[in-house]
Amino acid sequence: MRYFLELAYKGTAYNGWQRQNNAPSLQQTIEVSLSKLLRHEISIIGAGRTDSGVHASFYVAHFDSERAIEEPVSFVYHLNSILPHDIAISKVYRVSEESHARFDALSREYKYYMLPHKDPFTRDLIWQYYRELDVEAMNIAALSLMKHVDFTTFSKLHSNNKTNICHVTHAEWVVDSSNKLTFTIRSDRFLRNMIRAIVGTMVDVGRGKLSPNQFEEILIAKDLSRASGSAPAKGLYLSNIIYPETIKL
Predict the structure, then answer these.
(1) Which fold has domain 2-103?
(2) What does the pLDDT read at residue 175?
(3) How many C-beta neighbours within 10 Å does residue 126 have?
(4) Is the four-CA dihedral 68, 11, 123, 229 of positive or negative sign?
(5) pTM, rounded to two decimals
(6) SS3 per-residue string spanning 12-50
(7) How far apart are CA 54 and CA 26, in angstroms?
(8) Who's near 163: CB < 8 A, 6+ residues apart?
(9) Which of 51, 64, 119, 134 is flagged as catalytic?
(10) Taking burial as the number of CB atoms within 10 A of a residue's CB, which of 109, 158, 183, 227 is the most buried?
(11) What spatial distance separates the first Cα and last Cα of the chain, rounded to whole Å?
(12) CB–CB of 61/12 below 8 Å?
């Protein structure tokens, strides 16, 4: 029987989602707790491989169980009781045997958070960047992300991607009343380190080091060496994943 888990996590203490031989990972931590609760070995498949230090306010994984989960609410309560404080399960539900947390996703959304002043309570959760940025110029640059599909410029080297083609449907910076900057980006898929490389390069647009036109030229160039340094992982959150309704039983 196959189940989907919906969860959130703070990625600070983990070396990314994917299981590691010599470092803590989110995948392994959840597998250990699931195996303990279901009393047989469980392997889980996540919707994507978030990097070390990256967070998720919404994440999905699937697993197969020999035992039926008769009371999902109770199961979630007991699973949360044995998981560490920085991982929270919100829902578990049965899906078709062919459903896949990664391959069935229709789109994904990430948010990147920045704060232009010091805040001792969010140092692990947001990029505190103490410079004024031209958000209007950054949003003009963001428009080019929806005009082009080859993101080789913002793809980490040696990632073994079959393709660097991504279809971005939304990319926008918003500033709230506390001056927190939020960059929201949606696409059918993302490349490793893609968003952090985009944000780092956009910050140079906001600082006036690059124009929006130069940002677009860098994107079109398909040359990683022209991208700016990557933004820190701590400001990045996987925030939503869309699946077809047909996966649920």
Answers:
(1) Alpha-Beta Plaits (3.30.70)
(2) 96
(3) 21
(4) negative
(5) 0.94
(6) CCCCCCCCCCCCCCHHHHHHHHHHHHHCCCCCEEECCCC
(7) 11
(8) none
(9) 51
(10) 183
(11) 11
(12) no
Fold of 107-240: Alpha-Beta Plaits (3.30.70)
For the chain, give the longest Cα–Cα distance.
58
Task: Convert the pLDDT of each residue in 185-229 to its tens digit.
Answer: 999 999 989 999 999 999 999 999 999 999 999 999 999 899 999
Contact by Cβ (8 Å): 42, 31: yes
The residue assigned the tokens 């392997």 is: 43
Sign of the dihedral defined by the CA atoms of residues 90, 94, 96, 98, in that order: positive
Residue 51: active-site member: yes
Q: Which DSSP string do the residues of the chain spell out, in sequence order?
A: -EEEEEEEE--TTSS-SS--SSS--HHHHHHHHHHHHHTS---EEES--PPTT-EEEEEEEEEE-SS--S-HHHHHHHHHHHS-TTEEEEEEEEE-TT--TTTT--EEEEEEEEESS--TTSTTTSEE--S---HHHHHHHHHGGGT--B-GGGS-TT---S--B--EEEEEEEE-TT--EEEEEEES---TTHHHHHHHHHHHHHTTSS-HHHHHHHHHHT-GGGS-PPPPGGGEEEEEEE--GGGB-
Task: Please report which confidence band the pLDDT of residue 36 belongs to, taking 50, 70 and 90 as the band edges.
Answer: very high
The token duo for 156 is 């980490």
The domain segmentation of the chain, as residue ranges, is: 2-103, 107-240
